[in-house]
């Protein structure tokens, strides 16, 4: 597996980058060699691999390492702990699903495992295995009743059944047409089982789990113990309940600012009426690309003119734009970003209601508050530097760093008066409320306090979302490929990042450009560790102190440009 890193390997003064680069390469190799749904085989290989990685790490004398190496040593040890915990969770779900709903799983996975190990196939035995699995599926479909197992377990079983269908397609294609005996025995039972697996996955999701409508959303609540463990991994000391309370406080501040803007627009205290007015101001069909182009250039010019961050020439010139398909907008109703900004806007083949919702959800003010989040100074600049400065630290990527950076910019630009009109302030505040709602609904879902349908209602009633967009947001949150803490990480990470900014820039220890360049240069890590790096905090093998992000409001040192009347109750550090 992983060759131990000898201390005399002729490395530079920093030893950890070579170890981490080797880990990334070896881990990627194992992921390709043993992908899902082979969870038990995967567990065996990964546990051995992670154990060897830990032994290698422990050969490095922490007290003799450079400060950079100590940072990476601590991050790597924490990552290994998290990998082992998540691996155990995957195996437990697989075992529970296969025991009650997928009794054929082990036999089918064994067929593909034998192929990967280059063992000779026995076509008649393989055909019998497929036919036996088909009989088990038919029996289960005739006996399983709605509510027989938890919706979460049925949903997980449906996902694994779909994975097995994909796995068997690769297994069949390997032999099909190359082995006449294989085709004679296997072709018909494979065809029947391939179709049955797809139908069975839909049956588990719809009939057993109860997600039998187009709008139904399934998810797997993580549970409080696992939530606390994941928060500990990113060095956050707050409980989920404390974070929910803090988000409610921030939401109340957002609403008061919405009311202030509504008054300026002539709507009294009716922030919903003001929001409706803003939603109605959108460009005509065909004009969205030009709007996004102009907004991107405006944001780039602003951060350069005010010397807020270094924007490399290549980063400024090489971003691109694509339009999001109608199908993808069912999951992502708004923009996505990086080197390519993916723009949501109605297409001609959408029905009238969906066209209206897409227009209203991607209006001028919302877009102005989003484009800089996705491009520069947001995700595009972030990813551009990630690839060029300590790229091995992308291994430690956390949404608290990734999304905390971009929402910190929204907070900073708000304080600098980037929003010039009450309509533009409404646009920025809508997204701020959206991030508050994400903390509340995602954590309460994972605590078992809200259903997906109740989360949709919250976004519509409390955050002002269009219903289809709210459905897409919740579907993305609980059925997309997102970490359970991803949605809450925007606001919590931004509180951390912005507090660190105020401590270092507001305290006169760094300029704006120095701070932002330093954050990007250090690359991914929990923000508690970033604080230790940027402040030169001495590091021991115990690591930096966890971050308590919810003490009483403590704005910290204010910059001259900060408008006190619009100051958000950003939390400090204790």
Instruction: Report the portion of residues in β strands.
Output: under 5%
Q: Percentage of helical residues?
A: 55-70%
The mean pLDDT is 90
- The tally of beta strands, per DSSP, is 2
Give the termini distance in whole angstroms: 42 Å
| Biggest sheet statistics | 2 strands, parallel
Overall tally of domains: 3
Computed CA radius of gyration, to the nearest angstrom: 26 Å
Low-confidence stretches: 1-12, 551-574
What class do helices, strands and sheet pairing give?
Answer: mainly alpha
Indicate the overall shape. Answer: globular
Element order: H for helix, E for strand: HHHHHHHHHHHHEHEHHHHHHHHHH
DSSP helical segment count: 23
- Strand neighbour order, sheet with most strands: 1-2
Describe what you observe in this structure.
- Helices cover 64% and strands 1% of the residues.
- The protein has helices spanning 16-33, 39-58, 67-100, 105-116, 123-143, 151-175, 180-208, 224-233, 240-264, 271-279, 288-305, 313-317, 326-329, 352-361, 364-374, 379-386, 399-415, 422-446, 452-463, 467-479, 486-506, 512-522, 527-535; strands at 320-323, 340-343.
- The radius of gyration is 26 Å and the shape is globular.
- A two-stranded parallel sheet has the order 1-2.
- Mean pLDDT is 90; it is low at 1-12 and 551-574.
- The protein is mainly alpha-helical and 574 residues long.
- The chain is built from 23 helices and 2 strands.
- It has 3 domains: 16-98; 101-208, no CATH class; 229-566, no CATH class.
State the gist of this model.
The protein is 64% helix and 1% strand. With 574 residues, the chain is mostly helical. Strands 1-2 form a two-stranded parallel sheet.
């Amino acid at each position: 597996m992983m060759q131990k890193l000898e201390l005399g390997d002729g490395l530079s003064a920093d030893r950890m980058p070579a170890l981490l680069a080797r880990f990334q390469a070896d881990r990627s190799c194992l992921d390709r060699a043993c992908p899902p749904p082979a969870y038990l085989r995967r567990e065996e290989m990964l546990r051995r691999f992670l154990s060897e990685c830990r032994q290698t790490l422990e050969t490095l004398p922490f007290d003799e390492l450079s400060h950079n190496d100590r940072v990476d040593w601590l991050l790597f040890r924490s990552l290994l702990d998290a990998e082992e915990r998540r691996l155990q969770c995957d195996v437990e779900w697989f075992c529970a699903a296969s025991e009650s709903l997928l009794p054929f799983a082990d036999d089918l996975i064994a067929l593909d495992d034998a192929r990967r190990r280059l063992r000779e196939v026995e076509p008649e035995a393989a055909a019998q295995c497929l036919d036996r699995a088909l009989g088990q599926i038919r029996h289960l479909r005739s006996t399983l009743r709605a509510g027989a197992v938890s919706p979460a377990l049925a949903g997980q079983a449906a996902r694994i059944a779909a994975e097995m269908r994909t796995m068997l397609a690769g297994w069949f294609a390997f032999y099909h047409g190359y082995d006449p005996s294989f085709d004679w025995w296997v072709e018909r039972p494979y065809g029947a089982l391939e179709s049955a697996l797809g139908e069975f996955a839909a049956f588990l999701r719809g009939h057993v789990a109860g997600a039998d409508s187009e709008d139904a959303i399934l998810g797997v609540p993580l549970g409080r113990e696992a939530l606390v463990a994941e928060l500990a991994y990113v060095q956050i000391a707050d409980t989920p309940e404390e974070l929910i309370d803090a988000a409610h406080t921030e939401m109340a501040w957002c609403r008061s600012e919405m009311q202030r803007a509504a008054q300026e627009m002539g709507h009294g205290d009716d922030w919903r009426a003001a929001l409706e007015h803003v939603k109605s101001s959108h460009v005509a069909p065909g004009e969205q690309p030009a709007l996004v182009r102009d907004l991107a250039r405006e944001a780039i010019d602003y951060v350069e003119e005010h010397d807020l961050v270094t924007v490399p020439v290549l980063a400024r010139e090489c971003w691109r734009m694509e339009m999001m398909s109608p199908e993808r907008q069912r999951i992502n109703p708004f923009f996505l970003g990086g080197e390519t900004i993916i723009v949501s806007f109605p297409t001609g083949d959408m029905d009238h209601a969906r066209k209206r919702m897409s227009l209203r959800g991607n209006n001028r003010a919302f877009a102005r508050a989003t484009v800089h989040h996705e491009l520069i100074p947001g995700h595009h600049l972030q990813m551009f530097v990630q690839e060029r400065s300590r790229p091995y630290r992308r291994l430690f990527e956390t949404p608290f760093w990734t999304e905390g950076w971009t929402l910190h910019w929204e907070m900073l630009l708000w304080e600098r008066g980037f929003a010039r009109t009450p309509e533009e302030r409404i646009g920025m505040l809508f997204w701020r409320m959206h991030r508050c709602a994400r903390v509340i609904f995602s954590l309460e879902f994972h605590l078992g306090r809200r259903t997906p349908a109740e989360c949709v209602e919250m976004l519509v009633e409390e955050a002002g979302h269009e219903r289809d967009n709210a459905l897409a947001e919740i579907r993305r949150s609980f059925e997309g490929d997102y970490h359970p803490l991803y949605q809450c990480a925007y606001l919590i990470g931004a509180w951390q990042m912005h507090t660190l900014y105020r401590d270092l820039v507001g305290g006169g220890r760094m300029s704006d450009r120095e701070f932002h360049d330093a954050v990007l240069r250090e690359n991914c890590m929990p923000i508690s560790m970033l604080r230790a790096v940027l402040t030169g905090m001495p590091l021991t093998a115990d690591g930096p102190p966890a971050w308590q992000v919810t003490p009483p409001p403590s704005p910290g040192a204010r910059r001259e440009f900060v408008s006190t009347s619009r100051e958000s109750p950003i939390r400090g550090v204790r």
